[in-house]
Amino acid sequence: QVQLVESGGGLVQTGGSLKLSCAASGRTLSIVTMGWFRQAPGKEREFVAARGWSSDSRYYADFVKGRFTISRDYAKNLVNLQMNSLKPEDTAVYFCAVAPTSGSTRANEYKYWGQGTQVTVSS
After folding, report:
1. How far is Cα 122 from Cα 15, in angstroms, rounded to an integer?
2. d(C-alpha 119, C-alpha 110), whole Å
3. How does strand 117-122 pair with strand 10-13?
4. What percent of the chain has pLDDT over 90?
5. Model confidence over 27-47: pLDDT tens digits?
6. Measured between alpha carbons, how far is residue 105 from residues 2, 6, 39, 88, 121 in Å?
7. Alpha-carbon dihedral angle through residues 109, 53, 9, 3, given to the nearest 10 degrees
8. Which of 35, 43, 79, 117 has its CA 20 to 30 A from that of 21?
9. How far apart are CA 42 and CA 104, in angstroms?
10. Can you state the percent helix, strand and coil of the chain, rounding each to 5?
């Protein structure tokens, strides 16, 4: 199994920035892709960004391109999501997840999930 713990959520004003981190432990050798998803109240969970665990392949949802950057800290075994130019519509619970396949952007491709961290962007 893989255990995932997110951190870094909080309250920020429109235009502000936050950095989310996801720490992985356990059977990390089984990870091929780590992704971020989000879910706003009353909405379905949606893909935000993903990157290869051991490669530099990166994938972004259209609505975050140019604003969010996903990166990996190899020394700390975690993946970061730097979020800039935040908008009220970015308000959601953000989840990290890992998949055993490459290029995964659909939630049903991900096997292990973190507990989520709340991001609130005030207008």
Report:
1. 9
2. 21
3. parallel
4. 90
5. 988 999 999 999 999 999 999
6. 19, 19, 15, 23, 24
7. 70
8. 43
9. 24
10. 10, 50, 40
